[in-house]
Amino acid sequence: MTTAPAADQRRLLDVQALDTTLDQLAHRRRSLPELARLLELDAQLADLHTALVTSRTAAEDLRRELTKAEADVEQVRVRAARDQARLDSGQGSPKDLQALQSELVALGRRQSDLEEVELEVMERLEVHEGALAEVASAHDALLAQKTAVAADRDAAFRDIDAEAERVRASRATTAQGLDEKLVALYEKLRGQLGGLGAAPLRGRRCEGCRLELNPLDLDAIRSKAEDQVVRCEECGRILVRLPESSAQA
């Protein structure tokens, strides 16, 4: 049967209060709204990054297509210029000059067709680059939001961690010198019962499970020696008897 000085048992409630505060701070740290917002932003950034890569790849493909279209037009222009120079020089047989004239007409049509292709690719590229700029801008805006939210998260972490450090220091001072067996039992129960290992008895009610003890259990508890550690029959927590709980409810 565990015993501990009544004063230690009452001081254990102060330790429990500080441990509860530490648990609440840890929960706050895990539940910061900034953390959820960062997850949302990361998901949005992942989608935008995929869109950005796809759009950039498509733009590069269009630039290569435009480069080829420009090269095709230039090739026809060079050939037409060469043929025109030969025709203007008047050198060659009439048949050759007539063939040059026919080729120049064909090259003119070919150049016109290729310039239409070049123009169509340019227009598509212009539209696509506009869309790419919008996606890139949205991506940059989300990155800026993420940076700001991360800064808010870090500031909240610093505040919570500083407060937790103060509470831990107070907890260490409060727990100093407590009965070792009492503390060991308390820590064991805390781990098993959701962080609450000790609770006061107020009137007939255990403040751990918030249930009222039946008269027989209550009388049995009140009859025990002050230094005897009692447990709640309902939840199993250490039940700390306060001076007012010794009076009949």
Automatic annotation (TrEMBL):
Classification via Gene3D superfamilies: 1.10.287.1490
Entry coiled-coil feature ranges: 52-117
Domain of life: Bacteria
Pfam family, one: CT398_CC
Ranges for domain C4-type zinc ribbon: 205-239
Keywords of the record: Coiled coil
Protein name: Uncharacterized protein
Domain CT398-like coiled coil hairpin: 15-193
Record has Coiled coil as a keyword: yes
